[in-house]
Design brief:
The chain is 37% helix and 19% strand. It has 504 residues and is α/β, with parallel strands linked by helices. The longest helix has 23 residues.
């Protein structure tokens, strides 16, 4: 990791690009002025870098150049800009200088703060480029949220992150982790948030965009990142915009039958709500950074194993740094005014009513619940089976601290907390930590507790310490201590308890 003192300033980055004789291309910026290209003009030597700079600010002009679209600050408009400008560069200049020039096109389409201060301040930024002359194209696309309260400051931040992106693409494309880390050089997370990044093309053929999404959250550039079951990186505001949202938080280590039954039961209740259109519901499987760091540093192989088995079940994954549920609720409410539901096990509900988690709030647990439920959010609770007594913990008999009972009763009576009485009783005996232990021990009993498609992925790829029967038998017969091929993020000694497959 490079310290801030060792990083070049924005001006030095722009000059380094200008002085690189291989780099030549165009800039097209819509929205906040030509803030990025201005840096390259300002530092000198721009004639060797800039083939063209333009701002198709008028909508009719923009449509005439790039084609019509429903929205002007969206990914599709950005990609249309990159397609058009990069194709023109190659068409006009490849024959005359293609052997010595690596062409690029940079584009952004941005909604900076208007004079009323009423708009959503965000933008799409991208670069399509050749890493080397005559090379195949590579591309980086990112979505930013502009957090400054003044238009001029937002423009300044946009210019800096744009220069960082160009410099990173040209000089750090072989180190994508460093590239991501460098995007906020000269800025801070108080000024700009990057909640989506996608690498593609020949220079990034070995990059897993799911890992890059995780890096955004891990480095603090964003508090959440999202990707689909196919591995496609998603921009949260576009997926969640004006949609009812249902979230299941869990460790998904591994994904079990109870995870799916919990989501099924909650979906049935959620979609039956009067103000929910079942065809619009977005369902998310959420993993928190605290869960991923449960045993210290994040183990990428363990992370990808969880993601792959969720993908096998068709789940959209949200990685978040919102351990507190009220912070997750606020994040979701930022993207939609429709109903929000969160499903959890009864054990997690007990922890939700544990006051030690809210000492940092001035209003304590009352403030946390005020934030959690203020946007008509609803909790759907899956029962917890006591394997020894056979008793169920439900909303009706949940034990909370005596001083919180009236608050708890009020939330239940108000309909903020609802019991999932439509659960499958056969799933109640499934506990994710026990399933994981069986996988690691070579006990085939785990197969009864996970969906068939998940079992196949675990067996085919050897996830979570799974060993094929012959390998397990040879290991047991060996006189040496058995070696369990387990990820670093092993549950042994973990203080994170799993309740019916869902972790707090």
């Amino acid at each position: 990791m490079i310290s801030n003192q060792e990083r070049p300033t924005t001006g030095r980055k722009a000059l380094a690009v200008n002085l690189d004789p291989r780099r030549y291309g165009s800039f097209a910026e819509i929205g906040a002025g030509q803030e990025v290209v201005r840096w390259f003009f300002r530092v000198g030597g721009a004639a060797g870098t800039i083939a063209k700079s333009m701002s198709a600010y008028d909508m009719a002009v923009s449509d005439a150049i790039y084609g019509p679209c429903d929205r002007y600050v969206c990914r599709q408009r950005l990609e249309d800009m990159l397609d058009h400008e990069h194709s023109l560069n190659l068409e006009r200049l490849r024959e005359s200088r293609g052997d010595t020039t690596a062409f690029f096109s940079f584009a952004d389409t941005v909604s900076a703060r208007n004079f009323r201060g009423t708009n959503d301040c965000h933008g799409w930024i991208g670069i399509r480029f050749q890493a080397h002359p005559r090379d195949q194209d590579s591309q980086i696309i990112l979505h930013v949220r502009l957090l400054d309260n003044e238009n001029a400051l937002q423009q300044e931040a946009l210019g800096i992150v744009g220069v960082n992106l160009l410099y990173g693409a040209f000089f750090l494309h072989h180190e994508p982790d460093q590239l991501i880390e460098s995007l906020l050089d000269g800025l801070s997370t108080r000024r700009i948030e990057i909640d989506m990044i996608e690498f593609s093309g020949i220079a990034f053929r070995h990059v897993d965009n799911r890992v890059m999404s995780l890096r955004l959250v891990q480095l603090g550039l964003s508090s959440a990142a999202m990707f689909s079951a196919t591995g496609e990186v998603l921009q949260p505001s576009e997926v969640l915009y004006k949609k009812p949202i249902l979230v299941e938080r869990g460790s998904f280590r591994p994904l079990t039958d109870v995870n799916l039954d919990m989501l099924r039961a909650a979906s049935e209740k959620f979609e039956d709500e009067a103000d929910v259109d079942a065809s619009e519901v977005v369902t998310l499987a959420e993993i928190t950074m605290r869960n991923l760091r449960a045993n210290g540093e994040i183990d990428l192989s363990d992370f990808l194993a969880r993601v792959d088995i969720m993908a096998a079940s068709g789940m959209t994954v949200l990685i978040s740094d919102y351990f507190e549920y009220y912070r997750l609720a606020a994040y979701l409410a930022r993207h939609t005014k429709k109903k929000i539901g969160i499903t959890m096990g009864a054990g997690s509900l007990v922890e939700l009513f544990t006051e030690k988690y809210y000492t940092e709030l001035e209003g304590g647990i009352l403030e946390s619940f005020g934030r959690l439920f203020k946007n008509d959010l609803k909790l759907y609770i899956y029962p917890l089976l006591d394997p020894d007594s056979g008793d169920l913990t439900t909303v009706g008999n949940l034990e909370v601290a005596p001083e919180l009972r009236k608050l708890y009763r009020y939330l239940v009576d108000k309909g903020c907390i609802e019991q999932l009485d439509n659960h499958n009783p056969e799933c109640l005996s499934t506990f994710s930590r026990q399933v994981l232990a069986m996988i690691e021990a070579g006990d085939d009993g785990w197969l009864k507790h996970v969906p068939a498609e998940v079992a196949k992925v675990i067996q085919d790829r050897g996830f979570f310490g799974y060993r094929r029967p012959l390998e397990a038998k040879l290991t047991k017969k060996s006189k040496a201590p058995a070696t369990v091929i387990a990820p670093l993020d092993s549950p042994t000694g973990s203080a994170i308890m799993s309740y019916n497959g869902a972790s707090q």
